[in-house]
Amino acid sequence: MDYKKPNAPKRELAIPQGVEKEIFLKAIDELSGDLGKENVELVDKSLVAYQFESNNLTSKTDPNTHDGMHVLDEEEFAASAVVYPCNTEEFQTIVQWANKTKLFGYGGAAPRVRGSVVIDLGRRINKVLDINPDDCTCLLEPGVTFYALYEEIQARGYQHLWVDVPELRGGSVLGNTLDRDVG
């Protein structure tokens, strides 16, 4: 089952609750300065359209701009920005920024609070570092999806190994493990 294409956003940029737009945009500019503008994206109509209309959202990935399996209006859980770190130091920078600005929210592949800033590990920290077919273990960066792990197992010719996935999409191996799930 594929995600349905969202309707054009009815509201402006989702600003975190209790934060003035100017303060939020200043904080985002600060983070962009630390990580590079290409690694911090405001969630606006163009990003949502890019994910859905340019085949950037496939059965292998989840949306990072909003809840793809929403129960309420799809904009109720819209993110305000998506941040793409590439290493531990950048992740630490994001956490320090979030603690300083108080712009942080809990979520899975999508935010649970409108206006949250999403940290997406899947774009730049997504390599399968090692697969040991003898003891059936692997070493992964945190953004590796189940589908990417499956593809790497196949590419290395380890057809006797298999991945027990919790969903048909690209769910995160690390995220699933941290959530004490099975798979």
Alpha-beta classification:
alpha+beta
Strand content: 5-15%
Radius of gyration: 17 Å
Task: Please state the oligomeric state of the protein chains shown.
Answer: single chain
Helix content: 25-40%
Overall mean pLDDT: 78
What is the fold-level CATH name, i.e. the topology of the largest domain? Answer: Uridine Diphospho-n-acetylenolpyruvylglucosamine Reductase, domain 2
- Spatial strand sequence of the major β-sheet: 1-2-3
Distance between the termini: 20 Å
Characterization of the model:
The strands form two sheets. A three-stranded mixed sheet has the order 1-2-3, covered by helices on one side. A hairpin with a 4-residue loop joins strand 4 and strand 5. The chain folds into two domains: 21-119, Uridine Diphospho-n-acetylenolpyruvylglucosamine Reductase, domain 2; 128-178, no CATH class. It is 30% helix and 10% strand. The chain has five helices and five strands, in the order H-E-H-E-H-E-E-E-H-H. Mean pLDDT is 78; it is low at 49-61. It has helices at residues 21-35, 45-53, 88-101, 146-155, 173-178, and strands spanning 40-42, 81-83, 117-119, 128-132, 137-140. Helix 1 (21-35) runs antiparallel to helix 3. With 183 residues, the chain is of the alpha+beta class.
In brief:
The chain is an alpha+beta fold and 183 residues long. It contains five helices and five strands. The strands form two sheets. Strands 1-2-3 form a three-stranded mixed beta sheet, with helices on one face. A two-stranded antiparallel sheet has the order 4-5.
